Each structure stands twice: as structure tokens, then as C-alpha cells.
Amino acid sequence: MLSELMSRWGIREFDLVRIYLRDGTALDGVVLPRPGVGDPSVLILKLDNGYNVGIHASNIGRVEVKGHVESKSVVSIPIGQFVKAESTGLPRVRLVATGGTIMSKVDYRTGAVYPSFSLEDLYAMYPEVKGIADIELLNLMAIFSEDMTPRRWAEIAEAAYKAFLDGVSGVVVLHGTDTMHYTAAALSFAIRNPPGPIALVGSQRSSDRPSSDAFENMLAAVLVGARAPFAGSYVVMHASTNDGLIAVHRGTRVRKMHTSRRDTFISINERPVAYVNIDKLEIVLNTNNHIPRSKVEDTILMNRFDEKTALIKFYPGMDPENLHFLIDKGYHGIVIEGTGFGHVREELLDPIKRAIDSGIPVVITSQTIFGRVNLNVYRRGVELLKLGVIPAEDMIPEVAFVKLSWVLGQTRDMSEVRRLMLTPVAGELNPRSDVGTYILGPELPSR
């Protein structure tokens, strides 16, 4: 339908147009290609302010063509290929691309956003990185973060490990934000004793939007890779809705907590390890509880993950068949998000017992996110302990899921699984809870 109307109006993609709506409103912009999904009757227009707007064909009165701009072809190194800049003596930082919008570039002649992963475009989009590090690029994969799998985690871990063996100061992983915290946890477990930081970075707003967070996030991530005194896996993203300060969150202590805010990532049950002051290009440590850099000779790659691990959320009235299904399908481990201290309904005790008796470890976390599992307070918790469940202490549910997948990739012995799940490996377990780390909720009014 839209193509017929565009033909009738005499317009085509990348035309500069003025559209008069039926209510008299006039809109100026560039006609963009339609995505493959959505209402086929909607025209997409890139406005002068940088935002896109969708206009249903039925709302369009008439169209004036003002001109035409040519679309730029996509420039990107192929998947699996590696390039690097000439050495200037600065620390080497390797960027590993997995997907996401942070390496998408705006063609300002057309208003279109396209994926671009090349040194030329990197320096055009983020020129300041030239003065921070000698950049190397590896285009590892190009997927949506919701398509990430444990097998992909293993690939990313191997790429980061090889980068450290090659002598880089740090690794920056470009990643979509939706499942970034899962990958950050996976890298925390898969690379033991890393010699430098692995900074996972993305953007909540694409680079064609005035409110994009891509520039400062990328700058901070490269700075962390080049100069941070600590090692390990971290998420490096905005610390607030304002610009100027970027938080560095431990990979096993971070979670995406908002659908669209630029400060969507929050450290859970722990303070951010550091902050990056963008104006000063300075890393400010926020805790003494960080992993120092070490020798690459001590680094070990342990990137096997068990893909038959499940994360399931308990809810009132949950059917025990949900657990029986996982057992019957041959799952090797189950993480349950319980209520409060880690509770589930009485009817789930039988399938939990069946799972444990069948050699399937069952880990209990809390869906409150903040706080700590304690199965010694109420009767139901004691009943779960007697069945042999593994309390996840203060682990985030997603981290407990990733850790169990990693542990099962190393061993299926039930006693060893229990020991490893209750042993701190990468900062995922704290012996005590800090009440000052609970930061959700509005500020109380002054009295």
C-alpha cells in the first residue's frame, strides 16, 4: 500500500520532503527505508532534529519533494576479520564487536543509521580515542543481544583471552544492552586471573539521537581498557541520566534495571568499582575491593558452559509440572527465583526433591534482586535445605544462572557443584551485606 502511495506522491527513499498532514501540520525531513516489521502503511521520516517519526499514510494530505540525497554504502570489516592501527606507543586496546547499536553510524546526508565497524569510522565517531590507546578491531559476530547463547559467551571469552595473550592492555566488548549483564558474568567466570580489564559497553540510545549515550560510554570503556589499575570483567555505562560520569560495574554484580534510561545498569549489593570523569578523562576508584592487574602467564581460559541449565521464576500457583518438564527434558541444573528469602510453594517440594535425587542441582535465589537468600528463617526454607537445595546467598539470579552453567561445564559431581556454587570465584558472593548499597526508590522529602 505504501509503495503505491509513494509512487502516486512521486517520492522515493532518501528524498528531502515536506509532508502536510491532514490537520495542517507540516513536517520536513528525509524519507527513510522501511524496516521489515511494523505497519506497512507507515512512512518513516528523519526530522531535522535527529529523531525519526512514523506517519500513517491515512494522515498524509500532500507531499512536496525538495530534493534527494544519496545513501552511503555500508563500510565494515567482515565478520571474523581483525585490523589494527599503526602503533604510536600508547596502550593497546582491542575492541571485540558482538552487535548492538554502539558501532552504528549516522549518514547525515540521508538520516539513516547503519552498522559500521572500521578504523576510519571509529575515529570519525570517537576521535578522542586516538589519544588514549592504539586501537585494534575484531569483528567477532553481529547479533542481537537477545540471541546471545552460552556458546557465544565461550567465543567471546576465547577472543578476549587471545587478545591478552597477544599483549593488549585491555579488551572492550561492544554488546547490546539487553543481555550485557549475562555476558559480563560469563566472562568473569570464563577467564581466570585476567591480566587486564574487559569492559563491556553499549548504548541505550542510537547515535542518530541527540540524547545518545554512545560517545561517552565508548570513550570511558577505552579509557578503562587502557589505564584502569584493575582487571576482570566490567560493564561501563552512564552513571546517571546526565552526561559526564560513567560507572564501572563489576561483571558479577550488575543488572539492567530500566528499559530505556541511560543509567539502566546498577550495581547490586555492591557499589560500583569506579567512575570515569569524562571531562578530565580520569578513572576514580570507588572501592578497594577490586582485582589488580596480573601477569598474563597466570591467566587461564575456562570457557565451557552447560547449555542445559534453566532459570525459572516462582509465582503464586506455579504448576509443579514446570519443574517436572525440565527434569524430563534432561536439564542438568535449575536456578529458581524464589520469593523473599528464597521460598516456593509446598507443591514444588516434590519435583525439587525429584530433581536433586536425579543428580540435578537446584539453586535458590531471590526475585527481590537486592538482599540475601536465607533459608534458615522460616519453615519452608528449612524444608528446602533438607531437600538439598543450594542457597545462592547474595548472588543476582542471572549471575547464579550463569555461574551454575559455568560450574556444570567443569563438573557434574553434585558435591563439587555445591562447593563451587558456594565458593566466591569472581566477586559474585559477599560474606556480608552492605546496607548502603540499596539505592532504589525515591528520595524522601525533608521534614
What would a concise description of this structure say?
The chain has 447 residues and is of the alpha/beta class.
Outline the structure in words.
There is one protein chain. This protein has helices at 2-9, 119-125, 150-165, 180-190, 214-227, 321-328, 349-357, 379-387, 397-410, 414-421, and strands at residues 15-21, 26-31, 42-47, 52-56, 60-68, 82-84, 92-97, 104-107, 112-115, 134-139, 170-174, 191-192, 197-201, 230-238, 245-250, 254-256, 265-267, 274-277, 282-285, 291-292, 300-301, 309-313, 333-338, 362-366, 390-391. It is α/β, with parallel strands linked by helices. The protein folds into three domains: 2-68, SH3 type barrels; 82-301, L-asparaginase, N-terminal domain (Rossmann fold, 3-Layer(aba) Sandwich), CATH 3.40.50; 309-421, Rossmann fold. The strands form six sheets. Strands 6, 7, 10, 11, 13, 14, 15, 18, 19 and 20 form a ten-stranded mixed sheet that branches. The chain is globular. Keywords: ATP-binding, Ligase, Nucleotide-binding, Protein biosynthesis. The active site is at 101, 177, 178, 256. GO terms for molecular function: asparaginase activity; ATP binding; glutaminyl-tRNA synthase (glutamine-hydrolyzing) activity.
